[in-house]
């Protein structure tokens, strides 16, 4: 008896290709044409560059632009995905990528690895900056409306991500950060779609969490730090935010209960405070305090509450923040 060959499973790339090809085809640009559209948009926006390379990268990205400080650009996109978009939608997607080049000095991220939580959180901060720039440049135009249309299609993905995270098929931090990376667009452009979705899915704390992140990103942006200093501070914000019960944010109250903050939130904040100094620490302590007072958290002892109350509001001290040891990053 000859052994039967193992049934072959489609690769993720094949799976995505089948998925995109099952959708109506709305365009069919060649790589050369995509490059022409991209460079045309850069010119229109007055963004200069040194060299440009456009390539197809299926199933990994929908579109991304990588560049060094000399503005040698590499645009990668999934051609199967692009074929599901109209020309206007492709132009809107590429306009967003142009805003990355216009906003950031380079696309390098200082983190232990590209898919580490720190790197993912820095990417969320970058999206925050880029969406603001996009709204500034394109607000009220057809491009802006087309991009909104694309973003509104993301909600199906959010549903899928939440389901996968709650089923233990996806790392919860990755799931949360993936949603935030996309969803940060909505409140920044005054669009209530994400808040509405959170309400419909009974995930109000997820919306609250995003509002906190945006508030803190606004503070970080206001410090006008260098890129390097920003990449040191943003992971600190990520570490502070980890005092929140990420499982609960995504609707899983079985794993760590229904509380917004983890039971070890104080300890985590203290650990951050030992390593670095930033007013964001007080901001997060106050959020924790306000929450625990409001809900009379039974896990919180009186002494712990006093510890929180005793925290005095410190003034922004940029100098101190800059020389502080970065959390999670190797000491320089
Ligand atoms: Zn982007």
Task: Explain this structure.
The model is unreliable at 300-332 (pLDDT under 50). The protein has helices at 12-22, 31-44, 79-82, 87-103, 117-138, 142-152, 155-166, 172-183, 185-188, 193-200, 204-222, 227-241, 246-249, 265-275, 279-295, 302-309, 318-323, and strands at residues 51-56, 63-67, 72-77. The radius of gyration is 22 Å and the shape is globular. The longest helix is centred in the middle third of the chain and has 22 residues, at 117-138. The chain has 17 helices and three strands. Strands 1-3-2 form a three-stranded mixed beta sheet. The protein has a domain at 19-108: Metalloproteases ("zincins"), catalytic domain (Zincin-like). Helices cover 59% and strands 5% of the residues. The protein has 332 residues and is mainly α. Zinc ion (ZN) is lined by residues 96, 100, 127, 130.
Quick structural overview:
The chain has 332 residues and is mainly α. It has a domain at 19-108: Metalloproteases ("zincins"), catalytic domain (Zincin-like).
Keywords for this entry:
332 residues; mainly alpha; Zincin-like; 17 helices; 5% strand; globular; binds zinc ion
What is the fold named in CATH at topology level of the domain at 19-108? Zincin-like
Helix and strand composition category: mainly alpha
What is the first-to-last residue Cα distance?
64 Å
Tell me which CATH architecture of the domain at 19-108 applies here. 2-Layer Sandwich
CATH-level-4 superfamily name of the domain at 19-108: Metalloproteases ("zincins"), catalytic domain
Quick check: average pLDDT? 87
Q: Order the strands across the largest sheet as they lie in space.
A: 1-3-2
DSSP strand (E) fraction?
5-15%
Helical content, roughly? Answer: 55-70%
The molecules bound to the chains, other than polymers, are: zinc ion
User: Roughly how many Å is the radius of gyration?
Assistant: 22 Å
- What is the class of the domain at 19-108 in the CATH system? Alpha Beta
Q: Let me know the number of strands.
A: 3
Report on the biggest sheet: 3 strands, mixed
Order of helices and strands: HHEEEHHHHHHHHHHHHHHH
| Unreliable segments of 5+ consecutive residues | 300-332
What is the general shape? globular
Number of helices: 17
């Amino acid at each position: 008896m000859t052994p039967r060959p193992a049934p072959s499973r489609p690769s993720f790339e094949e799976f995505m290709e089948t998925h995109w090809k099952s959708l109506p085809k709305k365009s069919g640009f060649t790589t050369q044409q995509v490059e022409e559209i991209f460079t045309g948009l850069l010119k229109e926006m007055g963004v200069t560059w040194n060299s440009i390379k456009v390539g197809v990268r299926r199933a990994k990205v929908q579109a991304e632009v990588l560049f060094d400080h000399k503005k040698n650009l590499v645009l990668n996109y999934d051609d199967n995905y692009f074929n599901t978009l109209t020309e206007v939608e492709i132009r809107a997607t590429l306009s967003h990528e142009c805003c990355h080049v216009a906003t950031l000095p380079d696309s390098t991220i200082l983190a232990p690895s590209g898919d580490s939580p720190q790197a993912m959180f820095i990417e969320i901060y970058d999206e925050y900056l880029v969406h603001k720039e996009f709204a500034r440049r394109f607000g009220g135009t057809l491009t802006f409306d087309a991009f909104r249309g694309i973003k509104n299609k993301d909600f199906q993905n959010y549903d899928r991500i939440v389901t996968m995270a709650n089923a233990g098929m996806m790392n919860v931090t990755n799931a949360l950060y993936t949603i935030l990376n996309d969803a940060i667009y909505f409140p920044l452009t005054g669009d209530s779609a994400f808040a509405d979705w959170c309400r419909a899915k009974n995930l109000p704390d997820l919306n609250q969490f995003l509002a906190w992140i945006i508030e803190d990103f606004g503070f970080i942006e206001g410090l006008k730090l260098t890129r390097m200093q920003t990449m040191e501070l943003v992971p600190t914000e990520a570490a502070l935010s980890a005092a929140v019960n990420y499982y609960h944010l995504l609707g899983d109250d079985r794993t760590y209960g229904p509380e917004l903050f983890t039971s070890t939130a104080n300890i985590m904040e203290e650990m951050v405070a030992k390593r670095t100094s930033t007013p964001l620490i007080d901001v997060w302590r106050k959020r924790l305090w306000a929450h625990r007072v409001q809900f009379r958290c039974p896990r919180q002892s009186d002494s712990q509450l006093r510890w929180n109350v005793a925290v005095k509001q410190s003034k922004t001290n940029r100098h101190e923040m800059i020389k502080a040891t970065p959390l999670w990053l190797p000491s320089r």
